[in-house]
């Protein structure tokens, strides 16, 4: 497996932290975290906090992500923020998170439009995919991953797919949806399936280039184990990213794993 892909650690702060709380957490992370060229640390605060955080952030240590955006570039869409508006502010946008699929009923086509809009605006999409507990019990995991990936990437060329990040997040493993711990062997199987899908649909080059992350109750104790799964390019972290001890422990783990892979 290609070990030259930098490890990517993304903090999804969800609908937590107002501007001053986010600024304080960033300040504490900044003090604790060193500049690591071999890993990439990305913070995804709420939409409201992106702009003030962008003024405070040390770009040698952190990048920013949005948690969502709307796929039209401009227009009469009350309450929405477009990818175009975010393009100078963020490197990444999380798309298709299970909370958006479940609570906001985002459809496959809407997610595909968002992925295309992100790419069109020079923002890297972090596409979240993963099966629910029910789908898992019905033996539908591979079908769900196949459907989610095929539709979400359907507007992209192979060269564009190379830039995409895919986060495998089984819904049952996300802390707020149950938080059952996924087994490394199972995660590795799904990673292989995801890359296989990309190779089948696009090119082998794209399947090697695409970064695949794991997400689901990752904390500082578990991160090292997940990051060592073959083919794992990083982690998407929810609740543990709100705790600076835990989140900086996850970054330390990513750094250790990345360095040991280089030796
Ligand atoms: C998530 O919501 O993307 C996530 C992985 O959450 P948690 O780490 O809290 O399970």
Number of helices: 12
Q: For the largest beta sheet, what order do the strands appear in spatially? A: 1-2-3-4-5-6-7-8
- The end-to-end distance, rounded to whole angstroms, is 15 Å
Number of domains: 1
- What is the radius of gyration computed over CA atoms, rounded to a whole number of angstroms? 17 Å
Contiguous low-pLDDT stretches (5 residues minimum) are: none
Morphology call? globular
Distinct small-molecule ligands in the complex: phosphoenolpyruvate
Summarize the structure.
The protein is α/β, with parallel strands linked by helices and 263 residues long. It is 44% helix and 15% strand.
Kindly list the characteristics that best describe this protein.
44% helix; 263 residues; 8-stranded parallel barrel; single chain; TIM Barrel; binds phosphoenolpyruvate; alpha/beta
């Amino acid at each position: 497996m290609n070990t030259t892909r930098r490890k990517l650690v993304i903090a999804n702060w969800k609908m937590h932290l107002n501007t001053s709380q986010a600024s304080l957490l960033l300040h504490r992370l900044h003090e604790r975290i060193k500049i690591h060229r071999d890993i990439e640390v990305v913070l995804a605060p709420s939409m409201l906090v992106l702009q003030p955080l962008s003024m405070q952030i040390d770009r040698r240590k952190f990048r920013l992500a949005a948690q969502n955006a709307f796929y039209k570039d401009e227009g009469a869409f009350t309450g929405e923020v477009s990818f175009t508006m975010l393009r100078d502010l963020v490197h990444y946008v999380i798309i298709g998170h299970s909370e958006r699929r479940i609570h906001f009923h985002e459809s496959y086509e809407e997610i595909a439009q968002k992925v295309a809009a992100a790419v069109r605006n020079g923002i890297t999409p972090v596409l979240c995919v993963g099966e629910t507990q029910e789908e898992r019990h019905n033996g539908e995991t591979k079908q769900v991953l196949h459907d989610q990936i095929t539709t979400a990437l359907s507007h992209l060329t192979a060269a564009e797919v190379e830039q995409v990040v895919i986060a495998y997040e089984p819904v049952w493993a996300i802390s707020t949806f149950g938080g059952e711990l996924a087994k490394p062997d199972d995660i590795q199987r799904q990673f292989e399936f995801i890359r296989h899908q990309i190779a089948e649909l696009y090119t082998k080059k794209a399947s090697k280039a695409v970064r695949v992350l794991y997400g689901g109750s990752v904390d500082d104790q578990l991160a090292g184990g997940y990051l060592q799964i073959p083919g794992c390019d990083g982690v998407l972290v929810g609740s543990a990213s709100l705790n600076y001890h835990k989140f900086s422990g996850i970054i330390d783990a990513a750094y250790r794993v990345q360095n040991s892979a280089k030796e």
